[in-house]
Amino acid sequence: MLKFLMYLIFLIPLCLLGNFWWVIQSLMFLLCFLFMFSMPGLFNWSNLSYMFGCDLISFGLVLLSLWICVLMIMASESVFRYNYYSNFFLFIIIMLTMMLYCTFSSLSMLSFYLFFEGSLIPTLFLILGWGYQPERLQAGIYLLFYTLLASLPLLVGMFYIYNFLGLLYIPLLMSSMNINNLFYLCMIMAFLVSMPMFLVHLWLPSAHVEAPVSGSMILAGVLLKLGGYGLLRVFMILINFYKFNYIWISISLVGGVIVSLICMRQTDLKSLIAYSSVAHMGIVIGGLMTLNYWGFCGSYILMIAHGLCSSGLFCLANISYERLGSRSLLINKGLMVFMPSMTMWWFLLSSCNMAAPPSLNLLGEISLFNSLVGWSWLSMNTLIFLSFFSAAYTLYLYSYSQHGMNYSGIYSCSLGFLREYLLLFLHWFPLNLLILNSDIVMFWL
């Protein structure tokens, strides 16, 4: 555990040297592969050290964090090309990687909370420092206030647990505590805002639209998964409070349908992809709250699949933005004429987003549908619409951006660099490869 942390710490001096952008990228890839080979067994903790350790849930999410952070460096080549404070940018990404690594590997509830909140600071720097528009200040304030206000009660809840049990060690927490409804709300509200659940999701689209491509990738890829990971851990204590879960399931499923309809009205590429994240996370919250085997496994699978898929879509949106200088669907039209090779990647990642086989999204959504229908037949009504509209807005995104008359203001366009094709391949390949070994992600419970 600590060896990987030390590896990251020793990358920091390299950031402060001059032209070390590609060296750091290569070393981060190496770290991903080293970490991949330290995979724990199905039912045990590994990489144990004081207050840190990995089981299979942590392992998958740490690997996702490391992978997305490398791809962030790869996607933000323009920062390096224009020398836009590239050393500080690399430093922030490495700090963020360390924070996320420690968050997912924490065995103590308190250190989990500290790193959970700490990971917001580098993200805020990314949005405020490298964002595109002046509105990024408002987006940053939204992000901070929503997440910090919701997570203060979580800290109080932790003090209550410590007072009652005398420990905050996650594997030893049990569900026999004398807890009340207010404690239940305190413990899950922070994670519901972080997911985000419908009604507390307003910070997400604004943060995505204002963030640079790296900020969007880490927000969609990993920071939304912190909420799901927290819920998976916290429900080990709150298992007796299942009778309130129908409230969150109802809000999430109905909210998912409403957000899917909002997606159909978007004219901004990034905004559409951001709202689609809210719809997908709605199904994840619904499946988690059923507290059954299918729900837990399905939510874990969909979190990993969505992390790769929506991060890839944000990369594609950025590739178009760098060429055309606009995120509007009115200008990003007829791209098939300009960038025919990119159209294949648009198609592949869009099909993954609508849960077409053989992507991991399909496995996750089928598992979640199983769990929700097993919990109540009534959830069928919303799931039908959710599934249909998710395909509808993805097709809308694909057909509007690739087909039709191209915007007459565009006169020349680069087809795409090898770096961009590799970047998209590294999003798409794990997404479709993991379904071949899906027993790993299904049998961890």
From TrEMBL:
EC numbers on record: 7.1.1.2
Reactions the enzyme catalyzes: a ubiquinone + NADH + 5 H(+)(in) = a ubiquinol + NAD(+) + 4 H(+)(out)
Transmembrane segments: 7-36, 56-76, 88-107, 113-132, 139-162, 182-204, 216-239, 245-263, 272-294, 300-321, 333-356, 376-400, 421-444
Compartments where located: Mitochondrion membrane
UniProt-listed InterPro entries: NADH4_N, NADH_UbQ_OxRdtase, ND/Mrp_TM
One matching Pfam family: Proton_antipo_M
Domain NADH:ubiquinone oxidoreductase chain 4 N-terminal: residue ranges: 1-103
GO molecular function, one term: NADH dehydrogenase activity
Domain of life according to the entry: Eukaryota
Job of this protein: Core subunit of the mitochondrial membrane respiratory chain NADH dehydrogenase (Complex I) which catalyzes electron transfer from NADH through the respiratory chain, using ubiquinone as an electron acceptor. Essential for the catalytic activity and assembly of complex I.
Similarity comment: family membership: Belongs to the complex I subunit 4 family.
Protein name, UniProt field: NADH-ubiquinone oxidoreductase chain 4
Gene name per UniProt: nad4
